[in-house]
Structure formats: C-alpha cells, structure tokens
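Exercise 7. Predict the structure of Copper amine oxidase-like N-terminal domain-containing protein from Alicyclobacillus sendaiensis PA2.
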Amino acid sequence: MDLWVTGSSDAGEVYVPLDILQNALDSIGLRSSWNASQFTWAIQTPTSRADTWGFPIGTGIGAVEVDGSLVTRLNVVPGVDLTSGWNGADTVFLPLSQVSRLLADVGVQNTWDGASRVWRWVPPLQTSEPLGPPQGVQEVRSDILASGANIMLRNLQVDGDVIVAPSPNGSVSLDHVCINGKLVILAGSGVPIQLTDIASPRIDVDSEGPVSIQLNGGAVGVLDVLPGVGGLQVTGTKSSMLEVGDFTTSPVVLAGGAYEAAEIRADDGVLNVETSLPLVRVQASNATLTVGQGQTVGLLQVSPAVDGFSVDNFGTIQFLVNSSPHPVSSQGTGSVEAAMGAMTPAQASGATSGATGA
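Solution. The predicted structure, encoded as tokens:
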C-alpha cells in the first residue's frame, strides 16, 4: 500500500496528516483514535499487545498509546489537510520518522521515499489458523501477526518479523521457520512454547506469567527476556543461541546446551544457570546468579557500575572478574578457580592480584 504524503516539512522532518494515517491504519485492521483535549493518539493492535519496549520516550505535547500503554511523546502540529475537500479539513500533523518506527514495531513494514514523497506500507499477514505447508517452504514477504488458542507455524521463510500472541492457556509451535527479522512472543502465564529448527537473529519474550520455551535444533542470535511480571524457563537441545539478555526481575532459568553467553541487565534480576556457559556478564545491581550443581561458568564478568551482586554457586566458576568496587557476595558449595577483584568470602582457589575476602 502506497501513501502519497502531502504533509509539511520542518527542519528536515516530514509531518503527516493524522486523518490520512487513521484511514490507512483502519484499512489494514489497526484501529486508532485521537483525543483532541489530551493530544493523545491511541492505537489498538489485532494482538492487543505489542513489542514497543525500548521505544524512545520522546518529547512534545502529543502522546501515543499502543494497546492502552504510553509508548512515546512527540510534536503535534495543528493544521489543515488540503487533500480533504475544497477547503481542506482541520487536523493535526505527526512526525513521519517516529510514526514509521512505531508502525514497524506493531507489524507494519514501511519505507519512505523523500524524492517521490511516497510512503510504502507492507501490511502484516494476520492469522489465527495454522500457517504453512506440510512439505516444502512457503515464502512470506511481510510481518506475521499470529494469535489464537493454538498457534502453529511451519515450513516458512519470513522476510520480516513474526509476532505471536497466544490466548490464555494456549500454546505456540513453530517448526522449520526461518525469520529474517525477530520473533516476538507475547505470552500469558503457563503457555508452552515449542520452537523446532527455527532460525532468527533475535527473539523477544514478553510474558504476563511464568512460561517455558523448548528449543529443539535451529539457531538464534539473541534471546531478550523483556521486563514483565512472569518468569521464563528455556531448555535447549541441539540448538545454537549466541546470547541471552535478562531484562526482567522475575527468575530466568537456562537449561540444556544451547547458549554461548548470558547477560543480566535488570536491577534485582535473578538468573538460574542449570547448564554450562562460557560467559556470564552482569550489568545491573543487586542481581543474583545461581550456578547449578555440576555446571560450569567459564568467565563471570561484573561491570564497574554494579552496586551489589551475589552468586549462589553449586558448580564451578573458572574465572571471576569483578570490576566493581563492591565485593561479590558468594555462597554455596561450589568453587571459584580464579578471581580478580573484591569477593566475599574469598572462595578462589587460585586468586589473582586484587582478590579480597572477608
């Protein structure tokens, strides 16, 4: 779908009439409304949840809400849309660059051609039914929005993102799905997620309660556990995952043998490692790492800005590097083979220069 944008420009920014935006969104199943008294634009997505975490909060008198949550603030310019009849119609204009990124987060691929002033949209493929052939590969040249009780996608090559939002007590099954963009999992409590031979550079998990992911085969670049009220257990079998980013305070449990590294990014975060890991990085304060019985962490790095970190160690940490001035609190029956930086008590059997203990 192509939109010819006649909006104004200001300091290099193109502004788009809101009425054109709302009509275009309505035509692809995204509802929106404008509250003139509060200068708020509210968008409702088909999945009723969206992965807008990390979107810049922005500044300005206008606000954008997606599925009831404030996502960003932006400049709003009152004006007249001259394409709406002889005398035009009163409307407001929104900055195209921010709206473009927002649309991408809710499943609408889009590109702007400033020379022709054409804004090209690729609406998402929406489904609540199983998608994909029993044999062979189906190519999808858009994002996919999948919702419903039992989501099943198989044998797909997706040139975009895949967003799955299962119903409460539902399930998710992806089998031989190659995703050029990211896989977004918007799950409720207790939803089982089965990922078999999938390939994706990134997976975002946003859960409203404890969920489990079973990885069988395939390759994933980064799995980010977003801030939410639920915990997550990931079990990998014959899979490859470069890194897990823990942005939630709820417990995250890693089991199986799929991981190259994990990073704790949330203050008060809890990461339980029931597998061996070459690398764990700690970037947040007052977090806790548990190393399971018989498991090995090759290198544990604590960043200089961390204010408090504890380890419940029942396995082996080969090398602990604490760049923070605050001691790492270590408990448990496991061992630290070598350490650099402050630690209490001093468990390292071969502590290097700079190791301290209580």
